[in-house]
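ARCHIVE CARD
SHELF: 3
SLOT: left
DATA:
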Amino acid sequence: MADGTREEKLKRINESIRSFPDFPIKGILFRDICPILKDPNSLTAVIDLFEEHVRQNHQDVDLIVGLDARGFLFGPLLAQRLGIGFALVRKRGKLPGPTVSVSYDLEYGKAEVEIQEDAVAPGQKILVIDDLLATGGTLNAACALLKKLQAIVVDCLVVVEMKDLNGADKIKPHTVFSLVQY
């Protein structure tokens, strides 16, 4: 557990996020979470606040599913704290063995995400985690993928939410818990 109140932890996280204009293309303001990973106190603050939210709102979660690739950084730490397992949703072609996939639209084309066929069981209660919610395409695809496997998505957790892009609307009826909003 990191020292400090909830507000102090949120301030620490907020101060750790860097902004890079015109990256990866002109007109985009990129929010970089790498400094959070570099600072053990900021990373602990993120996991503390996620854990607090889950323990207060979702006591019966079975599994955390992390999105490729930054969901893999936060998800296992939270899963370990909660004493539950962790599974991966990856870009198509990156997982061994039998997989289940869904395709989704991007601003510039199509993409696919997949999960190993035996990663979740029907009826399991799932938390989906990623670093950032922008337009909601990948998070929505992950929720659709889990629904296809008859799992129950109880909440989606992100460090950063870009509110003006309305990504949370795209994943309804699922809810999003975000630590920082821009």
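SLOT: right
DATA:
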Amino acid sequence: MVDNNVDYEEVDCGPWENWKKNWKSKMAFGQCPYVKDGDVEVVQSNAILRYLARKLDLYGSNNKEATRADMINDGVEDLRKEYLRMIYQNYEEGKGPFIEELPGKLKYFENLMKGGDYILGSKICFTDYNLFDLLDCLVTLSSPCLDAFPTLKAYYDRMMNRPGVQKRRATEHFKGLKINGNGKQ
């Protein structure tokens, strides 16, 4: 939102008990995140991403571009699921094997990113933000994980250096966020 100069209000639902008491019943699936935009209410991370992408012209300019964005976003989510499973269910024993297997998974993104600054070439799309977010988590988990992937590393650096991304990361709110709810990273 910040990178696209969109004004918004971010609300922290607070600790689990507060969220359960005040927010859970308001969510369509009983979980966060949640976006309210006028009379439109959206839950589910990827539904929110796609809603905002359509609204902010971050979905590509034709069906072929939108399909590429969707395809790569689904790949991002597949890897994110594996990451979250390790973080929340098998951190102690699973971290080492996850990091060892990461190059085999990142090579697909490396190959898909060749030929442009962003997923759709020269124009940024919603999937760029989602991929960047996941790469940021992975770099926190294993700082050298992108070293063998020059295209992906350059992409990560390019996203990190966008003025809006830097502005968001400089906020006290962002600095206080945990990457994962259980504190493992």
